[in-house]
Amino acid sequence: MQFVRTISVGRPQDKDWAGIGRTSIDKRPVTGPVAVHGLGIDGDEVSDTQHHGGPDQAVYAYAREDLDFWEAELGLPIRDGLFGENLTTEGIDVNALEIGTRLRVGEPGVGVLLQAVHVRTPCNDFKGWMGESGFDPRSWVKRFTAEARPGPYLRVLETGTIAPGDSIEVVHVPGHGVTIRDLFVALNTDRSRLPDLLVVDGLLPKVRAKAEEFVQSTAGSLPPAEPVA
What we know:
229 residues; alpha+beta; M1 Pyruvate Kinase, Domain 3; eight-stranded mixed β-sheet; three-stranded antiparallel β-sheet; 5 helices; 22% helix; globular
């Protein structure tokens, strides 16, 4: 079964290690139904609006299975919401979702329709939060990046109300084969894969621009094509 295990929200807190002096990464679970609108979940407030939030980063999802992986790696318990996710999922590999995949959470007409459109990029705030939470923050950003388990940012296509335990149904797969994990790798660890993103219809404009810029910058360095006999 694929379902939402936990829904978590956070509000700005003053932190010396945060880039702008405050952060909302400390997400805590809600116990009942919660409304979801175009900019996210009621009760969840973005601190750094320059780098977070907006329609294309309205809801952040992370799999319990990936949290379990990090528990084993780090040797300490990791509660739902600790990675700053709004939705802690179970039974679905959210990193294997194709970009543009649509997910129905909850019942039609009551729940929401979400679309996987972007990836979380680890930052120094994440590092600082891990340190405050009792983990060794040294090289955390590099370590998280190397594992390529980023979790997707979800756009809200249909608003509604969801609750912990709601089912997750994949209702549309674009079919291009480029996954959330592929997007993360292309943007963070292997720029040679940026051109692969261009097959994605509806790719975020800033991501498409980066991929096109890479193609243009490398065009002159490519070997000439072999003549056709």
